[in-house]
Structure formats: C-alpha cells, structure tokens
What we know:
With 89 residues, this protein is mostly helical. The protein has one domain. Helix content is 82%, strand content 0%. It has two helices and no strands.
Amino acid sequence: MNEPEHHDDFVDMAPSVQAQQVVQRLTAHRQRLHEEIGQLRREQAEIEQRRDVLRRHVDAVESVFAKNLADIDATLKIYRSGIHSLGPS
C-alpha cells in the first residue's frame, strides 16, 4: 500500500510538533462534530414542531368529522323513526 505523501514529512517532525498537529486535527474534527450535532438537533426540533402542528390539525379534522358523522347519525335516526311522515305532505 502506498502511504500518503505527508506521512514522510510527519515522521521527520519532532514528537512535540507531531503531537501538536494531531491535537489540532482532533480539535478541528471535534468542533465539526459539535457543529453537526447542533445542526442535527436543530433539524430534529424543527421536525418535531412540524409533527406537533400536523397532529393538532389532524385532531381538529377528526373532531369535525366525528361531529358531522354524529349529526348524520342523529338525522338518520329521526328519519327512521318516522318523524318525516308526521305533518302535511
């Protein structure tokens, strides 16, 4: 396997310089991870908020449908009981 070209330069450096570069890279990687985690958390919060809004809308629609269905059932019961035949035709 071919090693990356910068590997030879890295080996020629003093151990303290090597350690410093490793620490800098790790710090940069950690910072990027923290930024990504923050972004994912913001996206998660936004999606949860949208989901909650949609649930409230669905609940409202279901409530209206249930009331309309109950109204229809009540009207059908009245018709079935013969009330529509009372009075003049």
